[in-house]
UniProtKB/TrEMBL annotation, chain A:
The chain crosses the membrane at residues 32-54, 98-122, 143-167, 216-240, 260-283. Pfam families: BPD_transp_1 (PF00528). Its main location: membrane. This is Peptide ABC transporter permease. InterPro entries: BP-dependent_transpt_permease (IPR050366), MetI-like (IPR000515), MetI-like_sf (IPR035906). SUPFAM superfamilies: MetI-like. Residues 94-283 form the ABC transmembrane type-1 domain. Belongs to the binding-protein-dependent transport system permease family.
């Protein structure tokens, strides 16, 4: 995959820089953030995969003897008006929330990446047409577009994923196109064309593998944005009414009890923030890593 | 100069027309019939429904409907609400000042906090201020506004009683929503300004300025900051659009009047003309803001001014 000239040059430059730098780098605040972020993501992933190992109660268990209790040793995040243990609901709710985040990035990234790659590689009127359409799409703020689509399709998990994915397509398309355009004009690509490689082969073997990293970095950061948009839609009432609510829906359900039970709203929101924060920290580090210009700015 | 302004004006106009077609197409393609919510299918006969569809014009082919829509927009008619037949545009115009006030206040918070912390963060790189500013920036872009808004209500309305938790009358009602929305924007600006300052500081001309003995303050504030500001202006322009869209959530959290509230209510009620109208209206505002931002480059960046 990485035998291309560009990657090799970057790698060689980095090796030179590493040789010049002192051998042991100081453990900085950024490294501390990175470790904390990794641990949070691992924990949330564990919540989504094996919630029954982590949650002390079943998320649907309603206990009339413990309604609206403040956080305590028995109920870490307190209980709600049904007597459900909020901690357990948050643990189980991570499933739908993470699904919305990951699935919409996958769909949006694939769609946007394909459109951008096609546009950049084909050039000419195809490029112009796609990019004009993209510019237009970009004038409609993402959340409004997502809101309109989710609103028209009706509340369902799949529709939220679709709405969030479509609203992220223009951004991915723009980044992918820019990268493909820049790789297309590199010498090693021209060399490949000049020895008679077919356009499809040049694209598949040289342009695509060298164009992916910005898109992947953007997708990593996009997981955070998607979870924010998705939970925003849930919060506005376009969420899925399932037995175990996702974080956004849980939070919006708790809004009515704000004066009586602050914990119902506070903890699902904390879960969203902690996860998105961790994704952003890791995404930042990835971006710095792939951007040779920014290596020194950590 | 004049040529560039004209060209940008024409492009903006084309983008607005494009977004009009796009908004119309998306809502046309999506399933659901406007009559679904207007009549009870079990009560109305097919003739009644067909009649209603004819009245609304939705029995016409796509291009006729589109032309029709386009024609009425040109006449300033954004359609009528399906629920109560209120015209859409006056409704938007009535609530827009409240949204504009919220957007303006949020942008003000974003730019003030963002610039201050971003610049301090870059100047005191890796110091305590830098770490605090970066943590604030990260939280800003990671907190959902509906959560930070609720936390602000919990702390400043319910516990301390300093500001009202809802409503849209008076400046007091503006403080908490603007803080909630502004935090997001300042997060973006802190990170951007820090990065672009660090990039500028590493350039050769800064070394020159330092070596000719210019005071560090002057190097930073007169030279580095001014060069780092150009991307910050672009970002602020983009931010105005994001803040405008962000009001959808924040206006709901704080039960404020505004176009964000109108659109979220309209979506719940499947009131298509209102949804179309508000999205189109936002797209127009967004395009105009971007146009202004582009033109403002010529004022702050002499390189752009000379190249045109």
């Amino acid at each position: 995959m990485r035998e291309a000239v560009s990657a090799k040059t970057v790698w060689r430059e980095r090796k030179l820089a590493a040789a010049a730098a002192p051998k042991i780098r100081k453990f900085t605040a950024s490294d501390l953030f990175l470790v904390a972020a990794g641990l949070i993501i691992l924990f949330v992933a564990a919540c989504a995969i094996v919630p029954q190992w982590i949650a002390p109660y079943a998320p649907t268990e309603m206990r009339t003897d413990s309604i609206m209790q403040a956080p305590s040793g028995a109920h870490l995040f307190g209980t709600d008006y049904f007597g459900r243990d909020i901690f357990s609901v948050v643990v189980y709710g991570s499933r739908d929330s993470l699904f919305i985040g990951f699935a919409s990035v996958l769909v949006g990234g694939l769609l946007g990446g394909t459109i951008g790659a096609l546009s950049g590689y084909a050039g000419g009127w195809i490029d112009t047409a796609i990019m004009r359409l993209n510019d237009v799409l970009m004038t409609i703020p993402g959340i409004l577009l997502a809101l309109a689509i989710a609103g028209a399709l009706g509340p369902s998990l799949f529709n939220i994923v679709l709405a969030v994915a479509v609203s992220s397509v223009p951004g991915y398309a723009r980044v992918m196109r820019a990268q493909v355009l820049s790789i297309k004009s590199r010498t090693f690509v021209k060399a490949s064309v000049s020895i008679g490689a077919s356009p499809l082969r040049v694209f598949w073997k040289h342009v695509l593998p060298n164009s992916l990293s910005p898109l992947l970095v953007m997708a990593a950061i996009g997981i955070g944005t998607s979870i924010l948009t998705g939970s925003g839609l849930s919060f506005l009432g376009l969420g899925v009414l399932r037995e175990v609510p996702d974080w956004g829906t849980l939070l919006s359900q708790g809004r009515g009890y704000l004066t009586a039970a602050w914990w119902i709203c506070t903890f699902p929101g904390l879960a969203i923030t902690a996860f998105v924060l961790s994704v952003n920290i890791i995404g930042d580090r990835l971006r710095d890593h792939f951007d040779p210009k920014k290596v020194t700015q950590r | 100069m004049l040529w560039m302004v004209t060209r940008r004006l024409v492009t903006s106009l084309l983008v607005i027309i494009g977004s009009l077609v796009l908004v119309f197409t998306i809502l046309y393609v999506l399933p659901g019939d406007p009559t679904d919510n207007m009549v009870d299918p079990s009560m109305a006969t097919p003739e009644v429904i067909a009649n209603l569809r004819h009245q609304l014009g939705v029995d016409q082919p796509f291009h006729i409907q589109l032309l029709h829509y386009f024609g009425s927009i040109l006449q300033g008619d954004f359609g009528k609400s399906l629920l109560n037949s209120d015209p859409v545009l006056p409704k938007i115009a009535e609530s827009f000042p409240a949204t504009l006030a919220l957007t303006g206040a949020s942008v003000l918070v974003s730019v003030t906090v963002g610039l201050l912390l971003g610049v301090l963060s870059a100047i005191h790189r890796n110091g305590a201020i830098d770490i605090i500013a970066r943590v604030i920036g990260l939280f800003g872009i990671s907190m959902p506004t509906f959560w930070s808004g609720i936390l602000l209500i919990l702390i400043f309305s319910i516990t301390l009683g300093w500001f009202p938790a809802m409503g849209s009358d008076g400046w007091q009602t503006l403080v908490l929503p603007a803080l909630a929305l502004g935090t997001v924007g300042s997060g973006f600006i802190i990170r951007m300004v820090r990065n672009s300052m660090l990039e500028v500081i590493s350039e050769q001309f800064i070394v020159t300025l330092r070596s000719k003995g210019l005071a560090e303050r002057a190097v930073m504030y007169r030279h580095a900051l001014r060069n780092a500001l150009i991307p910050a202006v672009t970002m602020t322009g983009m931010l105005i659009g994001d803040m405008l869209a962000g009001t959808v959530v924040v206006e709901t959290v704080f039960s404020r009047q505004g176009i964000g509230r109108i659109i979220s209510d309209a979506i719940m009620a499947k009131d298509l003309p209102v949804v179309q109208g508000v999205i189109l209206f936002s797209a127009i505002i967004y395009t105009l803001v971007n146009l202004l931002v582009d033109l403002s480059y010529t004022l702050i960046d002499p390189r752009v001014r000379r190249s045109t």
